[in-house]
Amino acid sequence: MALPQYIKVSQGLARPEQHVGEIDPQQLPRLRLELAAPSQALQVTLGLARDRGGNWLRGELHGSLELECSRCEKVFAWPLDANIDLRLVRNDAEAQQVLEEADPYQVEDDRLVVADVVEDEVLLALPMLPRCQQCEQAKADAPEPAPAAKAERPNPFAQLKKS
Ligand SMILES: [Zn+2]
């Protein structure tokens, strides 16, 4: 089954189904800025689920993105393997409530725009300082001094507010 452009949340929860398909990363404008060269289609699995904790969007992303190594500037294929596990919320207040235990995702007008969710999640998964295999290996052989500020995964809620 192809990926829909958007998932209607009320319908998706009433009749859960897995959506499986591909998304061209070149079609995602914010992600495209991060790519050093044209990259293969991303494999996407997405589905809604409801449990005692609330409503969730769950799925997986697989792919291979062409990134530029931050050390030697060579373009290399970075393997993407990410899980999507987002608690669906209706507003900021709800998002604040769930923030401790889950990554919130705000739903507007009962719809999830599939490309937006996928793009947000891929951007979160991208390394801050991509390194090709050789440089990764060089680093392992001769560890550099730890950087002053540890690169942390950006808070998805802060990310959400920016857009
Ligand atoms: Zn490198």
Describe this structure in words.
The chain is an alpha+beta fold. The chain has one domain. Helices cover 28% and strands 34% of the residues. It has six helices and seven strands, in the order E-H-E-H-E-E-E-H-E-E-H-H-H. The strands form two sheets. Strands 2-3-4-5-6 form a five-stranded mixed β-sheet. Strands 1-7 form a two-stranded antiparallel sheet. A hairpin with a 2-residue loop joins strand 3 (42-51) and strand 4 (54-68). The longest helix has 12 residues, at 114-125. The radius of gyration is 17 Å and the shape is globular. The chain binds zinc ion.
List keywords for this structure.
163 residues; alpha+beta; 5-stranded mixed sheet; two-stranded antiparallel ribbon; 6 helices; 28% helix; binds zinc ion
